[in-house]
Each structure stands twice: as C-alpha cells, then as structure tokens.
Amino acid sequence: MASNQSVLQGMILAAARETHEELKQGYNEVHYQNLLLAKLKAVGLKAHKEVAFTMYSQEGHMLGTSRADIVVERLGVVDVEGEQVVQVAEGIIIEVKAGVKPCPKHYEQLLRYTRHYPLAYNGCLVYYGLYEFKLRWSDR
User: Fold this and answer.
1) What proportions of the chain, in percent to the nearest 5, are helix, strand and coil?
2) Which of 45, 67, 103, 104 has its CA 20 to 30 A from that of 97?
3) What does the alpha-carbon distance between residue 54 and residue 52 come to, in Å, rounded to a whole number?
4) Which 3-state string (H, E, C) describes 17-73?
5) Which of 88, 70, 71 has the alpha carbon at shortest distance from 79?
6) 44 within 8 A of 8, measured Cβ to Cβ
7) Rama region for 74: left / alpha / beta (φ>0; ψ in -120 to 50; rest)
8) Cβ distance 111 to 124 under 8 Å?
C-alpha cells in the first residue's frame, strides 16, 4: 500500500505534468503557478499560493521572512499504541521556476525553505518553460 506522502507526491506530479502539457513553454512563472494551483485544488488538495513564513536560526534568532510559491497541506491521522488518535500535518512546499535551466541554487533555496518552514514538510522543485518539464523532490 502506498504511503500518504507518496500518494500526495503522485497527485502533485500529475497536476504539474498537466500544467506543462497545457502551457508548454514561454509563460511567466506566475502563470505556471496559477494554473498548477488551480489543478491541485481541482483534485481536492488544500493548496495555498505565496505562503509567507518566518525563518529562524538554530539558536532561535529571527532571520527574516520568505515566501513559498505553493504549499500543499494534508492532515493525517495516526493511532498511537491504540490509545491516542493524533492529527499529523504533512505536506509539500512547491517552488516553481520558469524559463531557466535547473541549477543548484534553486535546490538550495528549496532546502532552506523545507528546513525553516514551521511544519516538517518536504519539497518539490518544478521547472517549466523549457522544452521539457523537470521535477525534483527533497526531504526535509
């Protein structure tokens, strides 16, 4: 049986691919973001655009705020030793890039976001606007 996270990743991959098939190349990043967001919501996912969050150092010093392009959330229920039922938030931060080739600084940006986001979310980097569509996952 597939895990909730892999099901969520599959749904994001399908929406990202549909967005690429519809728009191909040549649009601005915001156009890809808007269509991807609409497709994620159309399949019942709780997705938000331009989510602001505060970043802190390991010592707790505020570094400043950042904005994730899209955040997809899902609440899971975990039964702990048959006694407690706990809701656990899981999700994925999606960063969208358009018209640029994949490069390490984009992945490093995504890793910073996943490390500093207040919830333990994984990340997904989606490249649009080139002749091919690329997607890269990250763990927190």
Assistant:
1) 35, 40, 25
2) 45
3) 7
4) HHHHHHHCCCCCHHHHHHHHHHHHHHCCCEEEEEEEEEEECCCCCEEEEEEEEEEEE
5) 88
6) no
7) beta
8) no
Amino acid at 111: L
The number of residues making up the chain comes to 140
Integer CA distances (angstroms), 113 to 50, 60, 89, in order: 13, 16, 17
**CATH 2.30.31 is right for the domain spanning 4-138:** no
Low-confidence ranges of the chain (pLDDT < 70): 1-4, 75-89, 140
Under 8 Å between Cβ of 17 and 32: no
Q: What's the pLDDT tens digit per position in 88-110?
A: 567 899 999 998 888 899 999 99
Q: Is residue 73 classed exposed, middle or buried when 0-12, 13-18 and 19+ CB atoms within 10 A define those classes? A: middle
45 vs 51: CA distance, rounded Å:
15
Integer Cα distance of 100 and 90 in angstroms = 29
